[in-house]
Amino acid sequence: MSNIKEKAIRIILFFVLGIFSGFLAKYVDTIPSNSAIGSLINIISNISSRIGIWVFIAAIIAARSRTPKVGAIHVFTFFVGMLLAYYIYSMKLFNFFPVYYFIRWGLIVLASPLAAYAVWFSRGSGWFAALCAALPIGMLVSEGYNFLYTFSPVSGFYLIAAIILFCILPKNKYQYLKVLIFTILTSVLLSKFDVLSYIIGGL
Q1: Distance between CA 112 and CA 55 in Å, rounded?
Q2: Could you give the CA distance from residue 126 to residue 104 in angstroms, rounded to a whole number?
Q3: In its keyword annotation, does this UniProt entry include Ribosomal protein (predicted)?
């Protein structure tokens, strides 16, 4: 019984964390960017309004979970809380509910348990585990590689996030090479065919 209670508490905590994240992501959108602090907040707003940071957070949650099923539940719960808080807050601020964007993000939230389930295996050994690790890392690299010539703070964040995942997901030094190979392939494919634009459209 206590085990069930602990699981329920964890789910509630991830839901609350999602609510806080959604509220914060929308709140930074409302801060003017006509000052030094405002400019920093604007960068944070640009980061939080794109999918990369949420992929980064979800990958960490999934990889650190005890089982793939638990990881899927925690990630889904987090995103449900975030989505509800973000759009309810938007509705309260502007008295307008953007149905189109809510549905698009909602579809991503519905798909998140499958992605989280796969990412859980990224901390294992072998080529399959390497592929599971490379998917979120490659996505972040494809979004951040242009930092090398644009020096965009948002792109720089994605590269840092990709490096962090690359450091914490592979299990050993032999796994790093496998993950690197798949990461290069994933990022090239995502960039060349602009896959993310088809998936998330104008989000």
Answers
A1: 9
A2: 34
A3: no
